[in-house]
Amino acid sequence: MVDAICKEIKMKKDRITSQVGSIYLGGGTPSILSQAALQKIFDTINHTFSVDANAEITIETNPDDLTSQKLKELKQLPVNRFSVGIQSFYDEDLIWMNRAHQAREAEDCIRRSQDAGFENLTLDLIYGYPLLTDQKWLSNIQKAIELEVPHISAYALTVEPRTALAHAIKNKKQIPVNDNQSAAQFVILMEKLVEAGFEHYEISNFAKPKHYAVHNTNYWKGVDYIGIGPSAHGFNGQNRYMNPANNALYIETLEQNKLPEIVEELSLNDRFNEYIMTSLRTMWGTDLQKINTDFGKDFLEETKYNLKNFEDKDWLIMDGDKIRLSQNGKLFADHIASELFVV
């Protein structure tokens, strides 16, 4: 698989003409790859593209992967940021989620990483699931604060169709997700992290000043990016492309010297809706001047017209040409964005 990934990187040499400012190894747990395999991928990236000396280089990992030995190996690589899937600091919750690690490992792996010199960490938490009382959620947030990580991502549990959880809920073997619980715990999250000095810079992301995730921020701001590997997605400002999830098909296509990607051509409406969806989620908001410049006067006028739906609601903050979500509006981000879409 590593050889196929390196081949795809080389085949996409012309996709990026500027310096690479961020690299994100995700899509599961790339940390389980050997040091040699990861080094080969980084060597290929550096030989193919011009990488900024201060680039943010993130790797996704699970707590149980971050052993002392693994940290020593990662220290030999250009990785400078970890995204750790903590999810909860309670064993019963981790068992319910079918997570492999235990609560003690979740805390220990963060401290081990910091002791090894990795201070640029982000940890993921989940809220809104049946086992999570408000008191436990407060405890999870407080533990994350006490660990002194500069970035926290938190997501409400969603039930995807055709999953084991969806099947269990349908057959009344699991309690359904409660939207009111999720909303209440999201409010707790916002209040406690902002109180602790974090900036709520995107709906699901909180960072200490100047510790925003470069890679994710580029995505929300519509910067081009390339995706490498099975299931990877990319965007060039005009179109999206997706690699197949099937590993065998991915490798076979590359062996035929073809890129294993399906291109989705985005219409002007698609690109506008994507801009609304991503920008509105951030603290920088949606820029009416940008809409006028990039999409035209008709889009600007329709946006202004659709904004009338929210005149009597405390959901939006109008700051000159910028539209941002209010504290209340963050509870309805997807609905607000959909009301601003054009069809």
Automatic annotation (TrEMBL):
Coarse class of the protein's main subcellular location: cytoplasm
Annotated InterPro entries: Coproporphyrinogen-III_oxidase (IPR034505), Elp3/MiaA/NifB-like_rSAM (IPR006638), HemN_C (IPR010723), HemW-like (IPR004559), rSAM (IPR007197), rSAM_sf (IPR058240)
UniProt domain Radical SAM core: residue ranges: 1-199
Compartments it resides in: Cytoplasm
Function: Probably acts as a heme chaperone, transferring heme to an unknown acceptor. Binds one molecule of heme per monomer, possibly covalently. Binds 1 [4Fe-4S] cluster. The cluster is coordinated with 3 cysteines and an exchangeable S-adenosyl-L-methionine.
Family that this chain belongs to: Belongs to the anaerobic coproporphyrinogen-III oxidase family. HemW subfamily.
UniProt protein name: Heme chaperone HemW
Originating species: Pedobacter jeongneungensis
